[in-house]
Design brief:
Oligomer: single chain
Number of helices: 3
Strand order of the largest sheet: 1-2-3-4
Order of helices and strands: HHHEEEE
Helix content: 10-25%
Structural class: alpha+beta
Strand content: 25-35%
Number of strands: 4
Largest sheet: 4 strands, antiparallel
């Protein structure tokens, strides 16, 4: 996801918080916002806390989506390639992430140095539903997966 300090009209950065949920308030035992059948603590929360590193680019994509849901700017910046990383990440208080669909992945496993994830992230902005459809590119940097760039599909 490529949300920087400003967002073009009609686009944003995905996260999977249920509609109406409070940003930054995902409890460790809550379902993970990324949509996998695990608790936040056992899924993306362990990446956000630094307890583990995402082993694949899809896992990193899901954890970055969850970071947008919980508004974890530090994690987003930490997992952004230094060549494309913005100075800050802002969060729109009118935006609520409502779902994440992984549509396709290419490469991005423990045996690769690059990979892509195509996804659709649903959200509401001021109560109006919308979606972000993006193909994100990930690379290994200093041994860890990081977000490098994206192409908006829609």
């Amino acid at each position: 996801m490529s949300r920087r300090t400003s967002r073009p009209a009609g686009s944003g950065a995905p996260s999977t918080r249920p509609a109406g949920a409070n940003p930054g308030r995902t409890a460790p035992g809550s379902p993970c916002p990324c949509g996998l059948p695990a608790t936040y603590a056992d899924c993306c929360g362990r990446y956000h806390s630094g307890g583990a590193a995402a082993p694949t680019c899809e896992a990193l994509m899901r954890s970055r989506y969850a970071a947008f849901v919980v508004q974890d700017a530090a994690y987003l910046l930490r997992t952004w390639h230094p060549d494309t990383r913005p100075p800050a990440v802002d969060f729109d208080s009118a935006m609520r992430w409502t779902g994440l669909d992984i549509l396709e992945t290419t490469d991005g496993s423990a045996f690769h140095t690059t990979g892509t994830v195509t996804f659709r992230a649903r959200y509401t902005d001021g109560g109006r539903p919308d979606a972000l459809h993006e193909k994100s590119r990930f690379v290994r940097h200093e041994g860890a997966w990081v977000y490098a760039a994206a192409v908006f599909v829609d």
